[in-house]
Design goal:
Radius of gyration: 20 Å
Low-confidence stretches: none
Mean pLDDT: 95
Order of helices and strands: HHHEHHHEHHHEEEHHEHEHEHEH
Distance between the termini: 14 Å
Structural class: alpha/beta
Length: about 325
């Protein structure tokens, strides 16, 4: 089987010859710099580093509106309706989508060969208004600017559907991931009521646009998302990642409660500096879930610079061992 076949079949709870060996977000830049200081060839690019560790490639392609960046971290370029009106004139244009499609066409041939699986990044309906308002004003905007919040998400939903339809002319990706980050280590940043009013309708509409294509629609949200899983399921979301262990996420419990819900991530990155015994124990914890299907084993966020090259070699060796136990 090819990488693409394995990834797709796992997401469909179908049998595979071995599990895909995926790093959904791979490594921090500082991590790679450390490894280069410990002997990793600095001439290796991302795909070559994956090959060096005998890992599979999950390629990320990103399509987002052409919105201006925040003037500083945590702030946003929109304060009111007038500010947003200036942005929307160019943010959702056909030219943005056309440039995106042209940029990914060189990937078509290796994708058809099955050299990699494909993950699409779209801005989600919690994430995107936050990038426009800024972190704190966004949380107030649910109450202060409800009509503007809906307008932002209406425009984003229309843009995302147009982008996905254009993408399907070139690729049929394995998964679409909606960037959200709407939880922290104590749970959701919004109530079920707000989620249902401001987010669920747009998830459902986007899901309807892709449901015949075989592409899975999943949420990318840090923190403890356990409470939100029933909300996601109501809205048509099929899975979630990265399932951060340090935030208290337990993928074994999630699988027991929601046996058909897809997951990716879940491997506790904090054990990686602790040596082979600790890393093996973590694989033992998550492997029963992987064996049941519908779950892509992967580090629960980017591998941090505290992980040495030698320890990552051990992690990759164990990953290959457990991938073949299926």
């Amino acid at each position: 089987m090819t990488t693409r076949e394995r990834f797709r079949r796992v997401l469909n709870f179908e049998p595979v010859d071995m599990l895909p060996r995926i790093e959904w977000a791979a490594w921090w830049d500082e991590t790679v710099k450390r490894w280069q200081g410990e002997g990793l060839d600095p001439a290796l690019n991302y795909s070559q580093i994956l090959k060096y560790f005998d890992m599979d490639n999950l390629v990320l392609i990103t399509i987002t509106p052409a919105s201006p960046r925040a003037p500083l971290n945590g702030a946003g370029p929109v304060r009111n309706e007038d500010d947003y009106e200036k942005i929307r004139k160019t943010a959702y244009s056909d030219e943005v989508i056309e440039r995106f499609i042209e940029s990914i066409k060189p990937l078509a041939e290796p994708y058809e060969r099955g050299d990699f699986a494909l993950r699409v990044w779209l801005d989600g309906f919690f994430w995107y208004p936050r990038t426009l308002f800024g972190i704190e004003p966004h949380l107030y905007a649910f109450y202060d600017y409800p009509e503007l919040m809906h307008r932002m998400n209406r425009d984003l939903c229309d843009f995302n559907i147009r982008a996905v339809n254009a993408l399907y002319e070139v690729f049929e990706p394995e998964m679409i991931g909606l960037a959200e980050d709407m939880s922290y280590n104590h749970g959701p940043m919004l109530s079920h009521e707000l989620f249902s009013e401001f987010i669920t309708p747009y998830y459902r509409e986007l899901r309807s646009a892709i449901k015949q294509r075989g592409t899975k629609m999943m949420i990318d949200s840090d923190g403890d998302i356990t409470t939100m899983i029933p909300w996601m399921r109501e809205a048509g979301i099929e899975g979630v990642y990265p399932l951060e262990r340090q935030a208290g996420v337990d993928i074994v419990k999630i699988r027991e409660l929601y046996p058909d819900f897809l997951m990716m991530g879940g491997y506790d990155k904090m054990v990686m500096p602790l040596g082979e015994e600790a890393m093996r124990a973590e694989f033992e914890r998550i492997f029963p879930v992987a064996k049941s299907g519908g779950y892509i084993m992967s580090v629960d966020h980017q591998t941090p610079p505290g992980v040495s090259l030698e320890n990552y070699r051990i992690y990759a060796k164990l990953y290959n061992e457990y991938a073949r136990k299926i």
